[in-house]
Amino acid sequence: MRHLLSLYKLRAILLFGVIFIILSVSNAKAYQTEHVVVVLIDGVRYTEGLGTANCPRLNALAAQAVIQDSAFNDSITVTSSAVPATWMGRFYPLQDTTYLGNDIQFCRYPTYWEYARKDLGFSANQVIYVTPNYGTGTWMPSFYPGYGPSYWPQFVQPPISTGNNNIACFDSAVTVIRRQHPKVMYVYFPDTDHAGHSGIWEDYLAKIREADSLTKALWDTIQTDIVMANKTTMFVTNDHGRHTTNFTGHGDGCFGCRHVMMFAIGPDFKRNVHFNSPRARMTDITKTAGELLGYQSPYSTGRVMIELFDESGPNCHAYIPGDINSDSSVQGSDVTFGVRYFKGLGLQPPDSCFIDSLNGYLYIRGDVNGNCEFRGSDITRLIAYFKGMADLAYCHWVLPVPPLKTDIHKETRPIIHE
User: Fold this and answer.
1) Longest C-alpha distance within the chain, in Å?
2) Does some domain include residue 382?
3) Please, are residues 36 and 292 in contact by the beta-carbon 8 Å criterion?
4) Which pTM value belongs to this model?
5) Contacts for 291 with CB less than 8 Å, ≥ 6 apart
6) Tens of pLDDT along 247-296?
7) Which of the residues 289, 344, 363, 382 could staple to 36 if both were Cys, CB 3.0 to 4.6 A apart?
């Protein structure tokens, strides 16, 4: 009887140990990023921005960064709608109200500052918004139930100056970095848009070059900070471009107004890589920052830009099961890619994770039956999935991003013609 009880105890201990290991692996923070900084340069048309002579410093820094060339404002291409959309991770008109005796406009949905403060417990001096002091004209975060002023950022607002707002915001941001080492920061450079509206081409280009220089200097400040260095991810984007045929204005649906930059640099991202697909949106920053830091953004309509993530080492879980060819979608082309690989006719899958428990590598996107292997049976499972006869699974050691849900894949499931 004692022997039987000892056996039960041993089994219980072993079972608890296995559960503990699985939970530890599943819940471990895989990312090195501990701080996120978003820099928004207002009103740069892509044809004068990244990749041109006007941005020599960001172009040089691109060797350490990843650039999403297919990034867009897919809604209203005016500042009053687009800037708050980057905070909320969605487009929605601002609302007028009176707050503390002042007429203001506020976001109708929570902002990325509010998400971060609520989920991660950050204090106001760790979550910063650097913008010129527009007084009561400063757009405010949300009053959304469960979020609101208790989770708003600290506003750092240098006085308005004629033609020098970029520099004033940069100086304030540097001071904040050195004193407070913020966890979440948003820095707004407005002068390029103002110069574009002036109609003076040389002034417009000069403000682009200024913003390029200040953004690179901001990154240098981060990388020399004893707290933030090598633990910070920085996104650089803009709220809108300018008319394709007229640089002085913006606001419609032309390609010049919609095309925006998406420059991302940090310890968890690819380096020296340009993407032309999948299509990204500036509203994706909120979700992607949440993935890095660990907060939820349930009201954002954006997505995690998993194509930016470095798939080596501990970050190889930024993947979609079934996306064998790594184009951020699950389609029939993934079957073709896998079949050609197994027949020795095509390239190997572009991602591979080292799995300690297997003491080897696994092409994690291809394991769709959840047995922590990538074999021909996974191709069979993927075909059955497309025919509506099976769901996809994943290796329990490496959780996907976003979490695997059947409805996610139904959205990308191609139409199969029998």
Assistant:
1) 92
2) yes
3) yes
4) 0.73
5) 31, 304, 318, 401
6) 999 999 999 999 999 999 999 999 999 988 788 999 999 999 998 999 99
7) 289
Element (H, E) at 114: helix 112-120
For the chain, the domain total comes to: 2
pLDDT of residue 277: 79
Q: What is the pLDDT of residues 142-199, one digit of tens each?
A: 999 999 999 999 999 999 887 789 999 999 999 999 999 999 999 999 999 999 999 9
CA neighbor of 207 nearest in space, from 38, 52, 43: 43
Instruction: Judge whether 1 lies within some domain.
Output: no
Rounded CA separation 316/309 (Å): 8
- Domain boundary (308, 337, 370) is at 308
Using one digit for the tens of pLDDT, what is the confidence trace for 49-91?
Answer: 999 999 999 999 999 999 999 999 999 999 999 999 999 999 9
Q: For the domain that residue 380 is a member of, what is the CATH number?
A: 1.10.1330.10
List % helix, strand, coil for the chain (3-state, nearest 5): 40, 15, 45
Alpha-helix residue ranges (DSSP H) falling in 28-100: 56-61, 79-88
Phi/psi of residue 389, nearest 5 degrees: -105, -5
Residue 129 is which amino acid? Y
Residue at 25 is within a domain: no
- Rounded distance, CA 31 to CA 315, Å? 6
Domain with 238, as residue range(s), is: 35-308
Task: Kindly report the length of the chain.
Answer: 418
